[in-house]
Design a protein that fits this description.
- The protein has helices spanning 7-10, 12-17, 19-33, 40-54, 57-69, 74-87, 89-103, 123-132, 137-145, 147-162, 167-181, 187-196, 201-215, 217-229.
- It has one domain (7-106, 119-229): AhpD-like, CATH 1.20.1290.10.
- The chain has 14 helices and no strands.
- 74% of the residues lie in helices and 0% in strands.
- By secondary structure, it is mainly α.
Length: 230
């Protein structure tokens, strides 16, 4: 099977006018495309997810295909649908699911009933306090003004961190990739969560480079600043 390569590196125009840029970009891609602190298949998934959040559908499909080629399982790939549903909403999640269905077409398509999960009184608040250490003002406001919304936030957050086939560490790092790709200072929240889940500083750095491929050098600056703030 022919290896998938970056169209940017194949650009005749950039090869002619931007040797520094392409040589730098190729080094960033080398960080992502080789097994390092994080396996290459997981980093390719992070690029696909970051590309989805930016609306770069062709890049998302290409990177998901590359991830599949180097061993990403359907279960691992499906984790991104859970995370995108929570962190970037319906549109991004459905866009990714379309790419997932195209890349892994042989999955069962049987109808599944809507799941039902009860939330006990105080369960959401206890979960937030356990994760954050103290109640974030935004979540305190949600619990006070819209208790049903507080339960909703708890369920989606719990599914995102602890309910994916990737496990907490790689799920937290995927959130870091998405937030860094969007230049969000909230990346610091999930950098802290990734560290708590056992991520090393090198794993965090490799994750930020995944965001560089979709969002440029500013993704690194945002992420590195968030590392210091976490």
């Amino acid at each position: 099977m022919e290896p998938i390569t970056s169209p940017l590196l194949q650009s005749p125009l950039l090869r002619r006018i931007a040797p520094y840029t392409l040589c730098g970009y190729s080094r960033f891609r080398e960080v992502v495309e080789k097994d390092g602190a994080i396996p290459a298949r997981i980093k390719a998934l992070y690029v696909a997810v970051a590309a989805t959040t930016k609306g770069y559908r062709e890049m998302a499909q290409r990177e998901l295909k590359r991830a599949h080629q180097i061993g990403l399982t359907f279960d691992e790939a499906s984790a991104a649908a859970i995370i995108l549903s929570s962190v970037r909403g319906e549109g991004a999640a459905l866009s990714y699911i379309a790419a997932l269905d195209a890349e892994y077409p042989d999955q069962p398509a049987a109808a599944v009933p809507m799941p039902k999960i009860d939330v006990n009184a105080g369960e959401a608040e206890a979960n937030f306090l356990r994760y954050f250490g103290s109640m974030p003002p935004s979540l305190g406001k949600l619990l006070n003004l819209l208790p049903l919304g507080g339960d909703a936030y708890y369920l989606m957050r719990e599914g995102t961190i602890n309910g994916t086939p990737l496990g907490p560490k790689y799920s937290e790092l995927m959130l870091v990739a998405v937030l860094a790709a969007d230049y969000s200072p909230l990346a610091s929240v999930h950098i802290k969560g990734a560290r708590t889940a056992g991520a090393s500083e090198t794993e965090i750095a490799e994750t930020l480079v995944c965001a560089v491929l979709t969002s440029g050098l500013s993704a690194w600056v945002t992420g590195a600043t968030a590392m210091d703030a976490a």
